[in-house]
Amino acid sequence: GAGVSQSPSNKVTEKGKDVELRCDPISGHTALYWYRQSLGQGLEFLIYFQGNSAPDKSGLPSDRFSAERTGGSVSTLTIQRTQQEDSAVYLCASSLVGGQRTDTQYFGPGTRLTVL
Amino acid sequence: AQKVTQAQTEISVVEKEDVTLDCVYETRDTTYYLFWYKQPPSGELVFLIRRNSFDEQNEISGRYSWNFQKSTSSFNFTITASQVVDSAVYFCALKGGGKLIFGQGTTLQVKP
Which residues contact A83 (CB under 8 A, 6 or more apart)? Predict the structure, then answer.
């Protein structure tokens, strides 16, 4: 079946602009996660959604970052007033279940964001 | 605090050599889950294995094997008879709450 898809694959923007990154999870997966991978910080958790529960936003680095998940499926990560330090690969993952119950997270190909 | 340490930043071997990637973790949870992922040059993270804390049986899958030892908080990964296609960055991860906590990754280069 289809895996996690993300769009765009690459995004170049100017400092100060807003960007939106999209994630389509595997069909039927109830949990969705966003991570960021950068050279200096490795792989960092940003936010995760589990069903209808309130999202865990504990990894968002600032209030410029937000995410939503519509209809329990597609998710959009928005970065407002982008800064050069936001340049990274943004990875989305989904799993069948989440929270304290464990299931495997499957990752998408990522969106490479470059802020000039 | 929960933490994953992969002390080996880069490893270089010649094809057909065996190689072990180390992973040490810290957690106060009594039940936890550990993972290994592979990130080839294409960039996508590929799931390799998941282990839970109450099952210390080692696992073998083809040329891959994993050694889980709770006594030393380690979850090491061995590739037997390495191949050039094994060249990638390998990440060990600990499930903490909903999220994965990753180590810094080990870059494995397998030379022909």
Answer: A15, A64, A115
> Could you write out the three-class secondary structure of chain B?
CCEEECCCCEEEEECCCCEEECCEEECCCCCCEEEEEEECCCCCCEEEEEEECCCCCCEEECCEEEEEEHHHCEEEEEECCCCHHHCEEEEEEEEECCEEEECCCEEEEEEC
Q: Which amino acid is at B59?
A: E
Are A50 and B47 an interchain contact pair (Cβ–Cβ within 8 Å)? Answer: no
Q: What angle do CA B56, B60, B66 make, to 5 degrees?
A: 50
Lowest-confidence pick of A44-53, A80-89, A97-106, B85-94:
A97-106
Regarding beta strands B64-69 and B59-61, do their DSSP bridges make them parallel or antiparallel, or are they unpaired? antiparallel
Contacts of B103 in chain A (CB under 8 A): 42
Work out the minimum CA distance from A110 to partner chain B, whole angstroms.
Answer: 7
Q: Which two tokens stand for residue B97?
A: 């709450």
CA atoms within 13 A on the CB side of B105: 20
Across A49-53, A73-77, B9-13, B48-52, least confident range: A49-53
What confidence tier does A98 reach under pLDDT thresholds 50, 70, 90? low
Cα distance between residue A32 and residue A28, in whole Å: 11
Phi then psi for residue A42, to 5 deg, are 70, -150
CB distance B50–A33 less than 8 Å? Answer: no
